[in-house]
């Protein structure tokens, strides 16, 4: 049995994420200089953008970001990698690249709750994989990416969104 250390898995995930760029060195430099690299979506992965209000309705937390939210997201989304953007009060669940097109009808329905599926033609500020704790208004991994290509299951994310929509007050939708 071959066992990979957390550091090995993190390095593999970094390489995998940066492989979305024509020049991965550019992304590594952005991580070193700014803590966030802007990566194109729709090739290796896409993202589902969740508004903070929806996430708060499911998790029962009172404010963003929060360790309580991070723990609930980890459990509810089956360990799917999630990025928190506390400045804009949003969460981004990384999912397979095909989700924006294969879930097109659901994506249209989600927009009423300010949920969006971001794929081809979009980019996402992805924090360095070491950023796993909230700091001021800087993006961080609410649920860290554990290994390369380990993404969220679209159906699990869809169920989370449905629960959030059900729990939100009608005036929030």
Key terms for this structure?
7 strands, 173 residues, 5-stranded antiparallel β-sheet, two-stranded antiparallel ribbon, alpha+beta
Polypeptide structure, described:
39% of the residues lie in helices and 20% in strands. The mean pLDDT is 94. The protein is globular and about 45 Å long. A hairpin with a 4-residue loop joins strand 3 (82-85) and strand 4. It contains seven helices and seven strands; from the N terminus they run H-H-E-E-H-H-E-E-H-H-E-E-E-H. With 173 residues, it is α+β, with helices and mostly antiparallel strands. It has one domain. It has a five-stranded antiparallel sheet.
- As an assembly, this protein is single chain
**How would the global form be characterised?**
globular
What is the ordering of alpha helices and beta strands? HHEEHHEEHHEEEH
- Strand arrangement within the widest β-sheet reads 5-2-4-3-7
Return the domain count.
Answer: 1
First-last Cα distance: 50 Å
Would you kindly provide a brief summary of this structure?
The chain has 173 residues and is of the alpha+beta class. The protein has one domain. The protein has 7 helices and 7 strands; from the N terminus they run ααββααββααβββα.
């Amino acid at each position: 049995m071959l066992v990979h250390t957390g550091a090995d898995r993190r390095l593999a995930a970094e390489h995998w994420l940066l492989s979305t760029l024509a020049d991965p060195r550019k992304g590594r430099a952005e991580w070193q200089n700014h803590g966030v690299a802007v990566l194109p979506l729709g090739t290796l992965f896409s993202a589902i953008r969740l508004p903070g209000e929806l996430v708060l309705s499911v998790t029962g937390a009172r404010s963003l970001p929060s360790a309580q939210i991070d723990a609930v997201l980890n459990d509810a989304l089956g360990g799917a990698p999630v990025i928190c953007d506390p400045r804009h009060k949003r969460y981004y669940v990384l999912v397979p690249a095909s989700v924006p097109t294969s879930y097109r009808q659901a994506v249209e329905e989600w927009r009423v709750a300010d949920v969006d599926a971001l794929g081809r033609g979009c980019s996402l500020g992805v924090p360095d994989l070491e950023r796993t704790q909230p700091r001021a208004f800087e993006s961080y991994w609410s649920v860290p990416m554990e290994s390369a290509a380990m993404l969220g299951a679209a159906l699990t994310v869809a169920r989370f969104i449905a629960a959030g929509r059900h729990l939100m007050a009608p005036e929030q939708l």
